[in-house]
Amino acid sequence: MAKVRFEPAGYETEIAPGTRFIDVTDEHPEAEVPYSCRSASCGTCRVAVVEGMELIAEPEDDELEVLEVFGDDPKSIRLCCQIRLRSEGRVVLRVVEP
Ligand code: FES
Fold it and tell me: pTM here?
């Protein structure tokens, strides 16, 4: 399992490798991650990966394209509607203000 913390909400939970973060936040709205398209096109769900980027699966092309539009570095910012946990550890995500 991995410990995941969502900022600025301060919500923390444990998830298993392979879990999609959007499923976690759908189940726990108290994580307070905003979504719109839910399919890597709007950028509403951008999160800064404060800790544990190495535990998150690599981005696909459609995610990279959206991050590029916003001028975000995929080594520090990801789309919460696209990311999936790869391995155990600790992940801290902070919602990027629009
Ligand atoms: S909700 Fe639109 S890119 Fe994630």
Answer: 0.97
